[in-house]
Amino acid sequence: MLSRAEALALDASDPLAPFSKHFLLPQGIVYLDGNSLGALPLATSDRLVQLVRKQWGEALIGGWTTHDWLTLPRRVGDKIGRLIGADTGQVLVADSTSINLLKLLAGAVELQAPRSVILSQDGNFPTDLYIAQGLAALSGHRCRLRTVNPSEICAAIDAETAVVLLTEVDYRNGARLDMAAITACAHERGALILWDLAHSAGALPVALDACAVDLAVGCGYKYLNGGPGAPAFLYVAHALQPRLRPFLTGWLGHAEPFAFEADYRPAAGIERFLCGTPSILSLVALECGVDLLLEAPMDAIRHKSLALGDLFIDLVEGARLDFALASPREGEGRGSQVCLRHPQGYAIIQALIRRGVIGDFRSPDVLRFGFAPLYNRYTDIWDAVAALTAVMDAAEWDRPEFMRRQSVT
User: Fold this and answer.
1) What is the mean pLDDT of the chain?
2) One of 172, 222, 304, 362 is an active-site residue; which one?
3) What is the tens place of the pLDDT at every residue in 66-91?
4) How many C-beta atoms lie closer than 10 Å to residue 44's C-beta?
């Protein structure tokens, strides 16, 4: 097994190592939960103070024009587009992932009539399924949700399938679907495809345009490091934009928002998918995280992500700990996280957190460890597995305080 000294040597030669100094990370903490909430970029605090005191504080309402606040959803969207393989004018930052899903699913189902099935994967992230269920109810069940095993997606696409809704990287086990192959299969059978990139954007190379993807959504608070509750983004391919009717026809999606016309006319491009006034403070915070990611080559991020994951698996297996590997063993089949299974997973995570190693838990028995290559080090992985070994060897998890479930796991 790799020694800690060897892990230190890998850190010393790591081309991404200088990026860690741009994040605020508490001393003595190994943070392996960037797949749930990214760390704070140091630039974010200063940028927000400047925005609040100078732009809002001094320009007041004039900030909308003098500081171009209204262009932020498109401007930050285009920057995210560079991370997910999208040409300009196809990505917009707005609302939450759930709201964006509703916008795009509703438009896709309407466009694809009389096709009426939303096809998704078993065990998809609950909000994706809930939104599809809610849309079915809202439509008077003119559309319906169907889920199948991820391995059966292509075979399940038929003449009734309006849109295929998939998450590229599974939140529970980190397994990655083949975007190019499944997108091609959907198109061959006349269906649109909508990808959820919550665990992809900023963590691994995504090629929406090259894969001819129709629609996508994603969040800003994981690998994009936009902060808790950061706004989400949506992607609509250029070819679809004129034909996809916005389901939520808000005033900022109007062709002339400040004409204040009584009847809705959609904007010509991606802006038609705006609804209400954007949250400027949140958008600026997200832009800081995105700007930092854009300074690092995505191929280098992916290479280190795979190396961190492989190291974690090797060390856990070498320590002969009583865990089942929930994630794919081969790196190309997973995102930027490794998940383990254990009947006492929740208590083990709580014991690890007590030792300063932060991962998280997903029911019923999954321990999740996310790797953010811009601030996680090889020694972080070594130290995390050493702490995990100590927790298991001494059964530190077997305490009443670690068994009590908190509201956020």
Assistant:
1) 96
2) 222
3) 999 999 999 999 999 999 999 999 99
4) 22
